[in-house]
Design brief:
Layout: H1 4-17, H2 33-44, H3 48-72, H4 76-95, E1 103-108, H5 111-119, E2 128-131, E3 136-139, H6 141-144, H7 154-160, E4 165-167, H8 171-188, E5 193-196, E6 199-203, H9 205-211, E7 220-222, H10 236-243, E8 278-279, E9 283-285, H11 290-305, E10 309-314, H12 317-326, E11 332-334, H13 339-347, H14 359-367, H15 373-378, H16 380-386, H17 389-399, E12 415-425, H18 428-449, E13 453-462, E14 467-478, H19 481-499, E15 506-514, H20 519-534, H21 566-587, H22 597-607, E16 617-621, E17 628-633, H23 634-644, H24 691-698, H25 704-723, E18 728-734, E19 741-747, E20 751-757, E21 767-768, E22 771-773, E23 780-781, H26 786-807, H27 859-864
The chain binds a DNA duplex through helix 3, helix 7, helix 14, strand 12 and strand 14.
Protein name: DNA polymerase kappa
GO biological process, one term: error-prone translesion synthesis
GO molecular function: damaged DNA binding; DNA-directed DNA polymerase activity; zinc ion binding
DNA sequence: GCGGATCAC
DNA sequence: TATGGTGATCCGC
């Protein structure tokens, strides 16, 4: 369907931001923009929703104000320097511009509404929308004349257009139609990328090559007559196809402006390639150009589904997406794969049209005088000083008409969530019950995909539309409703307690699970299990650890090849930082990834700088039977473990535990700080500069000496990047079962940071005759599920720690019940314990001191390959 | 790792 | 009467 984005704008932006970009030409039947806004405003003013919108708007305005202040402090010298750096980068980008791919973006027109109209002729001439009285998914073009858009609540739509028919959504049907469309798309690119039920990207480069040699027969399609095999209902419209191919699909867009699809001229470009499909008596032959291919695709979609699609053809995804919007509905547009064609297209393109530039970004950039891509390019130096590296790189790409030139397969899922809106719920019991239901739903969904994760997040929205999320990460993966609820419940409890005696007045609750083990993690785990069972001989290096003589050092990200995109780098860095934390578990003697528990003990104790007793006669707890082995030699202990291997209750051994260093910072984005002193330049005035100044600077050319300073700058930058990944070493001084564990975090930058925490080994499992007793609260646990039990202990422990912290005590959290056998497997360190935030109320809003750089969202991935 | 924001669909 | 659900990413802590 048409981009929700645009529809959102016309509704909300006009309402709140007065952008004045609504190009809605009022038809005789529809409403003009003023009337639409008036009605919307009347319906919305005074509502809690509107109040929250105003609040958010204020926050955005504050961000803009901060940004403008920061801009005012920029010296022309700084700007010049930035200009050099940015232009250097721009030059590299220009050199790597790739026009060799043909990317197509297919977008079904008003998809849900179109399906409903197709299947119910009664709706054909009427304004309709799909959704409910609270929210619309899409509307047909007829309804749009009245200002009825997607993401608009139905009750407001009804005020705009009282005749509006709101059809409840029928997703199964949409999925079925979507499948039909996708079958067609697969013929042109088996690896096409579906973005939703109604949108997809294709890379038809290969198809085009092959197609050049195709005989006419292979490009020939017979036109369906009214009595189709696939559709029961006769469609006289289809017959028109034989009269003129381009007049197809009046069904949906009987009301679309006639000039949108001038017969015989769907495309404004590459006229030289135009050879209209030859229309034979009952068939049509398509040519071999990209444009013809896309016509063929759209023709086949319409023949098969009686629905129309719009399409964009361009050398990259970003442009293709914009193109598909250009001749909507039921049209297509191509940007020829020539640099000049791209630049001409980009020139006056409003940045808001680009996927990833949303309402807020648009407003921030507008404050800098940037509306079109040309202006975005002209201000590139300024942007590099005001925004994060991620952001200004993204902006630069857009302003140069660059984007992803190939489609990547969907990566692994990162989270799964369930959330629900309801009429106010204020009673705690009801809230817990709801939470439990959500957890059950989530668990079911998780099970379908066989997912387990370590982070549970709850989301709460109060009746004033203020949203907050609270998360907790546990040491081993969870997946069942009970496990998730055990964690979610505590998060919810904290929030309820925080507002006591006032109830939480909720209108939405959600539960999300994330931190799924990556494929790599799973492999490690696999290996560990195999190694464990086979008593293999893997070394620590298998997990990526380098053994050093003095202290354990972690691998840093290797130098990334220049060819890798910025985002590849970021991804790699993230992976690495993840591995860092992952490795901590190993180094800390948890040994879950390594082959043999006894070997791990040996290795770690050798690496540890144990200040006290030698490792020869320590008290060990067998990781298999969990029994304390008293003060014996390592050799004896290992023999015991050998003997025990094959016994039960080892499953818990394989879960991943880790200690994360809060000291590890990931991203250094800014190329250099604004306050930084500039060295090389001489006698530069420090005057405030304006946008106009920037424009003038655009054309400055690097002289050799300046280039040198840029080099120095980039060197510095790369150093900064490295220092942003400090090697943090963990030095465990003492780590016995059943006792407190002193972890010393040493950071090269910050010197030595010492933290004393009471960490409990995991796999608590206090078993007395099949009854599990929590070592923290000492209460018998009803469950016999070990994971669930451990979740309970995690939570119990967390609570205990929090309470202790609040009381400012340093004592260990719990003393194990004397009667119970000791717990613990080989002193595994539990999760990092963090104190949950307790914000007083939801109305709290943090005032950003620094400019919050814009964050271009997830489509960056698509954008940059 | 957490929480707030932004964005897409 | 009344303004959604899911997933992802970024940024500053």
């Amino acid at each position: 369907m048409d981009s929700t984005k645009e529809k959102n704008d016309n509704y909300k932006d006009d309402l709140l931001l007065r952008m004045g970009l609504n190009d809605n030409k009022a038809g005789m039947e529809g409403l003009d923009k003023e009337k639409i806004n008036k009605i919307i405003m009347e319906a919305t003013k005074g509502s809690r929703f509107y109040g929250n919108e105003l609040k958010k708007e204020k926050q955005v305005n504050q961000r803009i104000e901060n940004m403008m202040q920061q801009k005012a402090q920029i010296t022309s010298q700084q700007l010049r320097k930035a200009q050099l750096q940015v232009d250097r980068f721009a030059m590299e980008l220009e050199q790597s511009r790739d026009l060799n791919n043909t990317i197509v973006h297919i977008d079904m027109d008003a998809f849900y509404a179109a399906v409903e109209m197709r299947d119910n002729p009664e709706l054909k001439d009427k304004p309709i929308a799909v959704g409910s009285s609270s929210m619309l998914s899409t509307s047909n073009y007829h309804a749009r004349r009245f200002g009825v858009r997607a993401a608009m609540p139905g009750f407001i739509a009804k005020r705009l257009c009282p005749q509006l028919i709101i059809v409840p959504p029928n997703f199964d049907k949409y999925r079925a139609v979507s499948k039909e469309v996708k079958e067609i798309l697969a013929d042109y690119d088996p690896n096409f990328m579906a973005m939703s039920l109604d949108e997809a990207y294709l890379n038809i480069t290969k198809h085009l090559q092959e197609r050049q040699n195709w005989p006419e027969d292979k490009r020939k399609y017979f036109i369906k007559t009214g009595h189709s095999l696939e559709n029961d209902k006769p469609r006289k419209e289809v017959n028109k196809l034989s009269e003129h191919e381009r007049s197809i699909s009046p069904l949906l867009f009987e009301d679309s402006p006639p000039d949108l699809q001038p017969p015989g001229n769907t495309s404004q470009v590459n006229v030289e390639e135009q050879n209209n499909p030859q229309i034979l008596q009952n068939s049509v032959v398509f040519g071999t150009s990209a444009e013809e291919v896309v016509k063929e695709i759209r023709f086949r979609i319409e023949q098969k589904t009686t629905l129309t699609a719009s399409a964009g053809i361009a050398p990259n995804t970003m442009l293709a997406k914009v193109c598909s919007d250009k001749n909507k509905p039921n049209g297509q547009y191509q940007i020829l794969p020539k640099r000049q064609a791209v630049m001409d297209f980009i020139k006056d393109l409003p940045i808001r049209k680009v996927s990833g530039i949303g309402k807020v970004t648009e407003k921030m950039l507008k404050a800098l005088g940037i509306i079109t891509c040309t202006e975005l390019y002209q201000q590139r130096a300024l942007l590099s000083l005001l925004f994060s590296e991620t952001s200004w790189h993204y902006f630069l790409h857009i302003s140069m008409g660059l984007g992803s030139t190939h489609l990547t397969r969907d990566g692994e899922r990162k989270s799964m969530s369930v959330e629900r809106t309801f009429s106010e719920i204020s009673k705690a019991e009801e809230q817990y019950k709801l939470c439990q239901e959500l957890c059950s739903e989530l668990a079911q969904d998780l099970q379908k995909e066989g997912l387990k994760g370590r982070t549970v997040t709850i989301k709460l929205k109060n009746v004033n539309f203020e949203v907050k999320t609270r998360a907790s990460t546990v040491s081993s993966v969870v997946s069942t409703a009970e496990e998730i609820f055990a964690i979610a419940k505590e998060l919810l409890r904290t929030e309820i307690d925080a507002d006591f005696p006032h109830p939480l007045r909720l209108r939405l609750m959600g539960v999300r699970l994330s931190s799924f083990p990556s494929e790599e993690d799973k492999k490690h785990q696999q290996r560990s299990i195999v190694g464990f069972l086979q008593a293999g001989n893997q070394t620590l290096s298998a997990t990526g650890c380098i053994e050093k003589t003095d202290k354990d050092q972690f691998l840093k990200p290797v130098e990334m090849s220049h060819k890798k995109s910025f985002f590849d780098k970021k991804r790699s860095e993230r992976k690495w930082s993840h591995q860092d934390t992952f490795k901590c578990g190993t180094v800390n003697g948890q040994g879950v990834q390594t082959s043999q528990p006894f070997q791990v003990l040996k290795t770690t104790s050798a690496n540890l700088e144990t200040s006290e007793s030698s490792s020869n006669n320590q008290t060990f707890t067998c990781p298999v039977c969990f029994r304390e082995q008293g003060s014996i030699s390592l050799e004896t202990f290992n023999k015991h473990v050998d003997a025990c291997l094959g016994g039960p209750s080892v499953s818990e051994m394989f879960s991943c535990s880790h200690v994360s260093s809060t000291e590890v910072k990931e991203n250094v984005h800014r190329s250099f700080s604004l306050g930084e002193k500039q060295d090389s330049e001489t006698h530069q005035e420090n005057t405030e500069i304006t946008s106009e100044d920037c424009v003038e600077l655009v054309e400055t050319v690097c002289n050799p000496s300046e280039t040198e300073s840029v080099d120095a700058l980039s060197n510095k930058l790369s150093k900064e990047e490295h220092s942003s990944l400090p090697s943090t070493s963990f030095n465990i001084e003492r780590c016995h079962q059943n006792s407190s564990c002193t972890v010393s975090l040493q950071n090269e930058d910050s010197g030595s940071l010492r933290r004393q925490e009471t960490l409990q080994p995991r796999s608590y499992e206090v078993i007395t005759d099949q009854v599990l007793i929590c070592p923290v609260c000492n209460l018998e646990q009803k469950t016999s599920d070990l994971t669930l039990f451990n979740v309970h202990v995690d939570i119990c422990l967390n609570k205990g720690i929090i309470q202790e912290l609040e009381k400012d005590k340093v004592n260990p959290v719990y003393q194990p019940k004397e009667s119970t056998k000791s717990t613990g497997n080989s002193g595994r360190v539990q999760k990092t314990i963090t104190k949950p935030k307790r914000s007083g109320s939801m109305t709290k809003s943090s005032t950003a001191k620094k400019i919050k750089p814009n964050n271009p969202r997830n489509t960056l991935d698509i954008f940059f390959k």
